[in-house]
Each structure stands twice: as structure tokens, then as C-alpha cells.
């Protein structure tokens, strides 16, 4: 039995995960993944019974949510890519980061498909995220393993919390439409976000296990990066 | 062109005239016209396959008047005369035309929006190949874009001799942003119907390039006297070819814009619209 040092926020997220959402066991993860990837296929013509029209506000929320998620996953990919570039000679870190990066690749591909499928304007700041994400990954990796893990912890805390906020809004949006929670486009989106949220929390765990909190200047690093993520989310929702 | 800017009356009595066809009008003043309420700006947001899309940006009364008016455009142009005839055909009083917030521009806008939405009913390359018409199967993406552009441009054919008037109305200061937004939506629609799945910066360059190609071709078409618009299709092919060979260089895009601005300025001068 290992005792992990969990940040209060992590405990908060975990608590939500148990109470509000079903726990994803690794065995069902793969099956779910196939489902959610299929759901994002633009050429797929699966038809659901016509449901109520979405309000202008709901459509705006969905558009912004999918755009910001795509931008976030793009950033995450570049951070891991940057870290990988530095740590690829360390066999232990190499496979660890490769594993998380692979999951981010899947996240990004899924949201890329959703952007095209639902005709959402992609973020206009892509060139900025390209540079910023990669620089953050390389930069923190150069500070050492613990700093890189602190970066991962900060980013995944922000993204995990962000996904939880979206889930809350989506569930609230559908609280009077029980059938929409059972099957359909929005249910698939909820499942996708839930699955990715769990992945992000796993990354968060991994970072904490690798002593992210032991990084030199942890508090500053953690808060600066979280602030940066918040700003990025704010921007991507708009531009 | 002097009557495109109108005041939006908010008097319920005038509103009532428009809200109901005169044939069935009653004198009760139960409610005001939906036209007097601010219109929801039609913005394409999350596109759903399960939830019905929001309806037309035009109210029922507006659609009735505007669609009837379009039939008078070939003979009366994009003008208030066409609107009045249209209102009468749709059983509204002539005065109800005053309720259209932007007058003649609403007529132009109605044509643009309905033809854009109609395009997908005519050709939709997202369908399985075997459901497409014989000649439209297994096309490359550029070929699909070409077919869709041609189809949309053909919808201008009945009013092409009047389309320069529409250009003049669209270029009035208050109408430019709505016109540009309509062009952007058409460009997006064409890429969507061609099955484009871009999700990165090419999303922007593709739409910008096609907007420029489409706008210049549409302008060219107003001056085309060839049989069945052969010259226009040749012009379109050259523009699409240019885009393909030169690539997405900035100079390419700017030269299109330059061409558009000059051709546009000439049209406007010929229509006595103050320009520069
Ligand atoms: Fe992710
Ligand atoms: Fe992650």
C-alpha cells in the first residue's frame, strides 16, 4: 500500500469521479475507446430519432467546448512531444511519456474528428499553441524530471477540472431529457469527455507518483503553468 | 439604390399588417409582429445530426414576401418595385415592405441564404458514391469543389443580368459585413458538402481561398455573354488551377483580392455608387 501525496484538488476530482460518474475500469476502457472513436466518424450515418432542437445557448456551449478541447489536446500533445524530445534517451521516462503521449494523440484525433463532424471552426491560435505547448514541454523537461512532472501535474489538473466543468454543464443541460442521456450524440460526447477526463487524472497520478511536488520552486511552477492553462482555455473558447 | 436604408417601425398596427396576410386579417390587436422583435443573427454553431437545426433566419412573413419578390427580380431588378409586387403576390399590403429591416438588401440576402441552403439538396458529396448521380462519382476534392461552385453559380442564372445591382447593394457600408459573412458561409458550405474534414489552419486558408475564387467568378459571370456561361466555367477552372499550382502563397491570395477590388470598383462606378 503506497501513500500518495494528493493535492486537495486531486482529492476533489477523485471524489467527483466516484460519486457522479461511473468508474472506468481498464478492461472496459479499450471497448469504450473504440465506441467513442467510432462516434466521431464524420462519414458515419448512424441515425437517432430526431430530438428537441438545441437552444442557441446550448449550441454555443457545444461549439466552444469542442473547440477548446481540441486546442487543449493539441497543447497537451505538444507538451509531451517536447518532454519526449528531452527524455527519449532515458529508457524509463521514455516509455512513461510515450504512453501518456499516445493517449493524448487519441484524444486529439477524436476532437479533430468532432470539429469536422460538427462543423466547428477550429481555434485560430493553432500556431501559438504549437509554439507555446512545445516550448513548455522542452522548457520544463530541461529543468529536470521533477519539474517536467510538476508541469504535467499542473496541466492535467487544469484539463481534468475543465472536463469536469463541461460534464457538469452537459449533465445539467440534459437533466430533463432522460432519453438523451441514454443514447445519442450528446451522450457519446459525455462518454468521450468522461473517458478522457479519467485519462487525464491518470496522468495526474503518474506525475504525482514521480514526485512532481519535489520539484525546485514547485509552488511557483505549478501556479504559473495553471494560470497559463486558464488563459489558454479562456482564449480558445473565444478565438 | 436610394431606398435601401429604412427605418424599422415599431408601431404594432403596422406590424400587424405584415404579420398576417390581408386576406385573413382581423382587427383584433392581440400581438405585435414578429418582425418588430430583433432577429436572431443566424450563426452556424454546433452542427447536429440528431437535433434539428435552427430554422431560417427569416420570419414566415418575410420569407413569403421575399420569395414572391424574387420572381419579379428578372424584370424589375433588386428594387423596391420588385418588393412591392412580391408583397402583393403574397397577399400583403404594399406598405408591409417597409417592415423589412434592410429593404432591398433583405431581398439580396434572402437569395444568397436560400440558394446556399438549397445547394446541399442538389449535390451532397458526403453521400455514398452509389447514391450520387452517374457523372459525379469518384471525383477528386478539387473536382467536387468545381461542381459545387458551378451548381451554386447556375442558381444565379435567372437573375444574372440583375446581379450587378445586388453587388451594388451589398457594397453599401451597412451591408458589407452581412455580405462577407454570407460569402464565408457559402464557402464553408461548399467545403462541407465536398466532404472536407480539415480541422487545423488549412480550415482557414481553404475557406479564404475559395471565397476569393467564388467571388471573382461570380463577378465575372455578370459580364459573361457566352453561350451557357462557357466563359465563366473556363474562368472558374483557371482560378481553381491557379490556386492548385501556385499553392497557398500570400501573393496569390492578395492578387485575387486585388482583382476583385478592381473589378468590383468598376461595377460600382457603372452603377453610380460613390466609391473611393
Ligand atoms: Fe488529453
Ligand atoms: Fe493528459
Automatic annotation (TrEMBL), chain A:
GO terms for cellular component: extrinsic component of mitochondrial inner membrane. Binds 2 iron ions per subunit. Its main location: mitochondrion. Its EC number is 1.14.99.60. It catalyses: a 5-methoxy-2-methyl-3-(all-trans-polyprenyl)benzene-1,4-diol + AH2 + O2 = a 3-demethylubiquinol + A + H2O. Keywords: Iron, Membrane, Metal-binding, Mitochondrion, Mitochondrion inner membrane, Monooxygenase, Oxidoreductase, Ubiquinone biosynthesis. Component of a multi-subunit COQ enzyme complex, composed of at least COQ3, COQ4, COQ5, COQ6, COQ7 and COQ9. This is 5-demethoxyubiquinone hydroxylase, mitochondrial. It comes from Choiromyces venosus 120613-1. The lineage of its organism: Eukaryota, Fungi, Dikarya, Ascomycota, Pezizomycotina.
UniProtKB/TrEMBL annotation, chain B:
InterPro entries: COQ9_C (IPR013718), Ubiq_biosynth_COQ9 (IPR012762). GO terms for molecular function: lipid binding. Residues 177-247 form the COQ9 C-terminal domain. Gene3D superfamilies: Tetracycline Repressor, domain 2 (1.10.357.10). One of its GO terms (biological process) is ubiquinone biosynthetic process. GO terms for cellular component: mitochondrial inner membrane. It is found in: Mitochondrion. Pathway: Cofactor biosynthesis; ubiquinone biosynthesis. Keywords: Lipid-binding, Mitochondrion, Transit peptide, Ubiquinone, Ubiquinone biosynthesis. It holds the Pfam family COQ9. The keyword RNA-binding does not apply. Membrane-associated protein that warps the membrane surface to access and bind aromatic isoprenes with high specificity, including ubiquinone (CoQ) isoprene intermediates and presents them directly to Coq7, therefore facilitating the Coq7-mediated hydroxylase step. Participates in the biosynthesis of coenzyme Q, also named ubiquinone, an essential lipid-soluble electron transporter for aerobic cellular respiration. Belongs to the COQ9 family. This is Ubiquinone biosynthesis protein. It comes from Choiromyces venosus 120613-1.
